[in-house]
Amino acid sequence: MKRVFLVLTVLCVFATAGRAQMGSFGDVPVEVDAEGETRFIGGVAIAENNVVIRYGDSTIYCDYAEYNPDTRDALVKGNVRVYRGTQFFSGDRALYNFETKLFRSADMRGDFPPFRFSADTVGSMGPKDYLVRYGVFTTSDSSKPDYTFRAKGIRIYPKDRIVFTRVTLYVGTTPVFWWPYLWQSLNEDQAFSISPGYKSSWGAFLLTTYSFPIAENITAKFHFDLYQERGFGVGLTSGFKYGKEDRSTGLLRAYYIADSNPDENNTGNKRGATGEGRYRVSVQHRAFITDDIYASIDMNLLSDEKFLEDFAEGEFSKDPQPDNVLSVTKLGQNYALSFIARGQLNEFQDTTERLPEVALDFKRQPFFGTRFFYEGESSAGYYRRAYSDNRALPDYDFIRVDSLHQFVYPTTLFGWLSFVPRVGMRGTFYSDSGRLGTETRFFTVEDVLPTGEVIRRTDSESKAAVIGGGSKFRGVLNGGFEASFKFSKEWDNVQSQTWGLDGLRHVVQPYTNLSLAWSSIDPDELLQIDRYIPSTQLPPIDFPQFTGVDSIPSWSILRLGVRNRLQTRRDNSTLNWLEMDTFFDVNIVEPEFPGGLEEGTVSNLNNSLVWNPLPWVNFRFDSQIPLLDDGFYQINTGLNFMVNRSLQLGIAHRFISDSPYFQDSNLISFGGYYRINDHWGFSFREQYELDDSVLESQRYELHRDLSSWVASAGFVIRDNRGEDEIGFLLTFTLKDIPQVSLPFNFDPQGKGGNE
To answer: ∠ at Cα 348 (661, 381), nearest 5°?
Structure first.
């Protein structure tokens, strides 16, 4: 093989201005290798047959090349392959400048991860930017891509973004959508996306989102949405992060819609009149001032109480009444100091205002080196119970100072009995007190008869009001103990590959908790801020775990229970194969919480069971049944399992009857996924209320694996015990590169234009 080696060096003695004009060529040599003849014509080097040109991180392979050392231009033809760092291009011909690293080419193909492309022409706009004319882009690595973007003009900024103009999306060879402009990030989930679909309460709709970076750690999404039945909406969502290790984060969301049908109601609940101008502004932000001091803000301003339900259903299902609170927290080794401010920003929501509150919490810790442990909490603040403007209840406010101090003494008796006695005291000062009741006002009414005679009579008017008042000090003494012990038995010969057993150990732990509390004031005589919230679950009977500060009554409660664990060996560790906790309360002195809530002498028998025998199956069972006194019934079960490699199923059941807090329910949820073959799958989920024989929701989807992405189509039907709601689903999901989104996505249960 004939080999010619050409070295062109720009000497360091060149003037600084000369080097600037030469760009970044510096003193790096250009190597030209070829199997064929290499010759010089007019100072231009010409090489043929398997030509290889190297310069820095750039390498060019071709059949024919011309190199001009004066202009640093290389003209290459025939089977051209250009490698520039991690980038690759191939084509028929190209003109490349080694100094400026600018090039122009025709009929080129290449990679800009995660995209692959082909184009009529490719040119450089700078050392790292490219301009493509009539290009075809895809992330599919198949010789016949299942989808492509075809654009008239494309600007490429490697490792940053690609900007398309006049672009069409093709599925196979079929055009499905066209955009005048499309922006796609190469490193973040940012792009121009469109979500078409249909929903009963919206009609046909088109949700569009344009994502773009504002700064290095600030991203933004602009929303423009069209609804057939509701009009159009616009919004902005921006996320940001900063500080050490980007620990400080925030999210801003703003949205406005001129709702042409604000009184549309597809639910079984009544709703009042709502204005056409509907909006939300929300800010969530956590800022670390130092490593142990951070501030948090959660602000949510809404135009009306139905906004989230109508336009952000996924968010509404998680938090229907978002908070408005500001806090600053200092974390110490054994304490936490907090400053909290909460206000009523939305007048249609009941709010417990704290304007402000300061709280100091001490975790359980040794008391001056003794065997005693101390824990406590103290708080002071100005509090206001602000009811919504559509409730006929009076607001009330007061100053409260509260302090709890408790000592515990963990010990072991007889070498096997864990015994933890405790004693504590609490003092609480209220600047005002009282209770909600009815106030009656009497007044005189005069009626004039046609004869002119005046008749006087007495009438009355009743309304809700705060009765009583004045400052009060309440003292609380609490005490009790916890006791438990364990015993176990092992069976090493229990072996079952089917059920994942490698030996079996049964651990039994009986336990008891006696809680005594004495309050100097009946909680019915106190205005409630931190109040006891009725629940189907037994309340905590220890302090400070019981957080209803203003609802503390006198009580004597004995909680009795037993924990059972079946354990086995797996992966060189001990696994809880099955766990069950059974317990109930004996109310020696029954607590009388505000509102006349009663539990009886003996509570329901509570049972909680968790069974995880294998990675592909898990079962949970929670129940409450009356033991001696009248009570209610509650049973919750859930089972998830894989029948085989193609079928996964899940079933859940919720039953509640005779509860004083919640209406009866007998709800079954059932769903699963079936893999039909390597390309097709089907998923479904149904929810049926047996109590009134209503199929509340149905969701069915068909999934198609298209090598580089999965397409899903389906529909949702919901019976709201009013007007049925129907939605059609269309989603496209890239499998291999989830950071790049196809510009189609629709889920009427979790998608909203402002999310």
So the answer is: 80
